[in-house]
Amino acid sequence: MTDVVLITGGGSGMGREAARRFAGRGASVALFDVNQPGMAETAAGFDTVRGWSVDITDFEAVKAAVAEVEAAFGDITRLYNCAAIMPFGRLLEQDNAIIHKQMAINYGGLVNITQAVLPGMVARGSGDFVSFASMAGWIPMLKTGGYTATKFAVRAFTETLWHENMNCGVRFACVCPPPVATPLLKQGKESDWPKMLEGERGKTIEPGDVIDAVEATLDKGKFFVYPTRDAKIGVFMRRLFPNLIWKQVHEVEGF
Question: Using an 8 Å Cβ cutoff, are 30 and 8 in contact?
Answer without folding.
Answer: no
